[in-house]
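Lab notebook, bench 4. The sequencing result for the construct came back, and we need a structural model before the next group meeting so we can plan mutations. Quick request posted to the team channel:

Model the 3D structure of this chain.
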Amino acid sequence: MTEFIHRFEPATRAGSPPLLLLHGTGGDENDLLGLGKMISPDSALLSPRGRVLEHGMPRFFRRLAEGVFDEEDVRRRALELGDFVADARKRYGIAAPVAVGFSNGANIAAALLLLKPDVLAGAALLRAMVPLSDPPTANLVGKPVQLLSGQADPIVPASNSAKLAMLLSDAGARVDHRVLPAGHQLSQADVTLARNWIRSVEALA
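Done. Here's the predicted structure in token form:
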């Protein structure tokens, strides 16, 4: 098994989609549990810790500089994460999860969508960037994806998040891209929009 340090909290109601919670740089397996409970209180929560350290801070893949990814590592780590999710589904008896990723976690979730589309039932990508400059052709037909970007985000240029939205749409995903009056950090609007989006995904399941 591809092991990650992680937290798992079982669902409290049948029918709510499991959430795969993916933290940002410097976070850990506890970081997004509160967010997960806010946006989908009854869902099972699977929250791994990134296995790469950058100056002692956990991440899901290496980067060469701010906004410049080690794309070979992105691919390898995304496949490792996909294997972990497959194993965790068997261990905990859960359906394919909806990823909820912030920043670095959103980027690895986007890479996972492109490299192993069947692993995720959908994804809420909070402050995500295009993870791969030459992504494979993925079949994301009908897969729900929410992309929440910050208008004043100093890390993710608006053109980059728009490119990611187009890339996922072109692969067939049902993309809901919102640009919020925010920076890189999350706001209450992110929580509200993600909660409403998860409910719409649940209604379609």
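Residues 53 and 59 are 6 Å apart (CA to CA).
Will bring this to the meeting.
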